[in-house]
Amino acid sequence: MNQESQLTRLGLFDARVPRYTSYPTAPHFSDSVGPAQFAEWIEAIPAGSSISLYMHVPFCRTLCWFCACRTQGTQSDDPVRAYAEVLLAELKMLKERLAPGVTLSRLHWGGGTPTLMPPDMIRRVAAAVYEAVPMGEGAEFSVEIDPNEIDDARMDALAESGLNRASIGVQDFDPEIQKVIGREQSYEVTAGAVAMIRARGVTSLNADILYGLPHQTEARISESVNKLLSLRPDRVALYGYAHVPWMARRQVMIPTDHLPTPQERLQLFETARRLFVAAGYDEIGIDHFALPTDGLARALKAGQLKRNFQGYTDDQAPVLVGLGASSISRFPQGFAQNAPATSAHTQAIRAARFSTVRGHVFTPEDLLRARLIEAIMCDFRIDAEEILRSFSITPARLAEMFAATKAVFGEMVEISPAGLFIPEPARPLTRMIARSFDAYDLSKSGHSSAI
Ligand SMILES: C[S@@+](CC[C@H](N)C(=O)[O-])C[C@H]1O[C@@H](n2cnc3c(N)ncnc32)[C@H](O)[C@@H]1O
Ligand code: SF4
User: What is this structure's pTM?
Assistant: First the structure.
């Protein structure tokens, strides 16, 4: 059997396999976690510890057809201002419940398009964050920036608020592809945004690009990657385009007859991957690349790469608090997700209630499996000694779990006394191998979150 048919047999081209930004994955959350539990977990954060904050801003000026993010279009600033007021109220509620001396490890604003907030709002929201949770030693503040939706005034507001990392959406530079996916953004606009960001001393810049888009060919993705390389981002996220119109209705605008086949997707990824590696980037997990000087590359080498809802991270804080509609928080005790709809979230906060609607309380078994999956997704290996040291599992049971995976994946996984290892040619199967440790997904019943 050639490599491609082996990969097909083992499920490589099954779009429903999760990306494991959490374990259990969000579709397995239940209503067992609500606002009272969330408040209790916030109050249990030890005084003087370090936490991270994610703030979701679910608005964009226009909606790109390809996008599966939770966001809504608005031509006016009014809903954005009203929403920012809700974030301010939510921050106040957080502050009231936090123990003294808690400091910030990472602050990330995502969306949607957080830069839709006018400059005065950017300043007010950032100031309120620092009032609730002051920045700790080596803290990072990053924002997702749409190059079509940024100017000097908003960049100045971000820089004055302590921005030191940024992420821009590129997707693809090819004009025909941009038209078909409903996202037009010239190279000049992107280069202008990069210059604006760099001019303010932001040293760590990430760019998102996609493979698997309609009309993409190896020649076209090579050209896009080379254009991106000319801007020398510190990190790149090379995501596979997830075509999930049943979840993101705007994707019905995208014609399916020019989508690459699964085999072509694999080739597109490989083509882009080789170019990044040749340009000196380190490969980070399944879909990221980073210059060796970047924090992600350093975390990988130090064995400290982690996975959270934003993807790969070098953040070591034990708590991530998600603010805003649909955001998910992670505590040592479990996950808590806010109301997905902006209106429901707003209503709850205005009534001085957290908007938590779903979540999950960890069992010891969850924590074990979460680490096994994270190790596979980050390092392509599970270190048996680390697992036996950190969890109450017998060597025999761990060996049994490895054997069950080996029985499905054969030579695509190597088992030894040191643990489990995924050799290079089997890396496209990483998510599938991770899934073999997922006790909730073994039924293969649910649709996973696709991006
Ligand atoms: C919130 S958006 C980026 C921020 C900003 N609004 C922008 O457009 O530049 C986050 C990223 O998710 C990725 N994304 C969105 N929809 C996707 C899909 N259907 N499949 C894969 N990745 C997707 C894109 O790469 C996008 O840059
Ligand atoms: S890609 Fe960015 S700008 Fe486009 S709809 Fe998604 S979040 Fe909004």
Answer: 0.94
